[in-house]
Here is the input.
Amino acid sequence: MKCLQHILICLFITCSWQYANAQGFDWIKSWRLPSDSPNVFIGGYTGFGMNTAFVDARSFSDVLDCCAFNNGSGYDFRFGLAGEYWLMGDFSVQAQLGFGSSTARFNTSRQDSILLIDSLEKVNTHVLNREYTLTSSIPSMELGLIAKKRLFASHFSIAFGFSGAITLPSESMHELELKVSVPGVELDRELYTPNEMIKGIDITSFIFKPLIRFEYDIAMFNEAYIKPYIQTDITLNSRVTREDPWRSLTVLGGFSVLFSY
Here is the structure.
């Protein structure tokens, strides 16, 4: 009889442990029934990181046809609302809705010959260096769907998903800066370094980005947690509407704060 009691107690403890972790939170302490344990969490997220933009000789040819821009780099900033639903102890699905901003800078240069009159009123040939910098800042609304799997029964997780970014129109989205220099000659910056807003670049209205993310869940207090994460994503389609390529690879870090609902 005692042996049967021990077996029943072991079975009860095992089943209770499995159900208690049904939402993946072994830190939640509650005397409620397992069916009452929370599995829906809502909160917010934010992230900041660096991006690399890949272009080629055709990209931005409608802005500057003298020379091709090089690959660019910049930064991304994102924030918004987040939700997580735990299907079982080590698997969840997430949704994000928020605002994103991606800024990238592209550079190119060219050299020409210029005739200048020196102090002795002689005409001399000099090398004229032109350096162009195109800065693009693209705001967007972003929706993300993510599936998450805990690793080795720990609080570390790996997540895969995708996000879609809807471009928000802006008149100050692209700015072209020109710097001119002549070796050994001092030039008037006001005459030779004009900046202008570029309106001829047609930006794609929707960008699709698959992503991979590593997270770690940290309990703040009962039924609430914070999760720092590292994420990388890449744009599958070009950011411009023409056939010219412009794809971005982003690596960023951030965190989410979630509360039981």
In short: The two ends are 44 Å apart (CA to CA).
